[in-house]
Design goal:
Helix content: 10-25%
Number of domains: 1
Order of helices and strands: EEEEEEH
Structural class: alpha+beta
Largest sheet: 6 strands, antiparallel
Shape: globular
Strand order of the largest sheet: 1-2-3-4-5-6
Number of helices: 1
């Protein structure tokens, strides 16, 4: 199962990390992380993954603890991966502002 990894910067202090596994061209697992550098500290804001066998979002606090889990039952792994990347691109400022408050 080939693993693919890439990162991209959304701004000079916000990064998205993408890791996924495919089998016969189909996504079978992934993790997408929204990372922000705030006051010279690195924080994981949100994590989208398939760690529990179903795509979901972990909303994190300043300590890196999950404070909310949002299940993405409506998506298969490939759709959830695409959703995660687009959601971060479109809504990262909202998520960071919520995280700070």
């Amino acid at each position: 199962m080939p693993e693919k990894n890439y990162d991209f910067w959304i701004s000079n202090s916000v990064k998205c990390i993408v890791r996924f596994v495919t089998e016969k061209g189909k996504t079978t697992g992934f993790v997408v992380r929204l990372i922000a550098f705030i006051n010279n500290q690195k924080f994981e804001i949100r994590r989208y993954d398939t760690a529990h066998g179903t795509p979901h979002i972990d909303v994190l606090n300043l300590k890196g603890e999950t404070i909310e889990k949002i299940w993405l039952y409506q998506f298969d792994e490939g759709e959830a991966l695409d959703f995660a990347i687009e959601d971060i691109k479109q809504n990262y400022l909202t998520y960071i502002n919520r995280f700070i408050k």
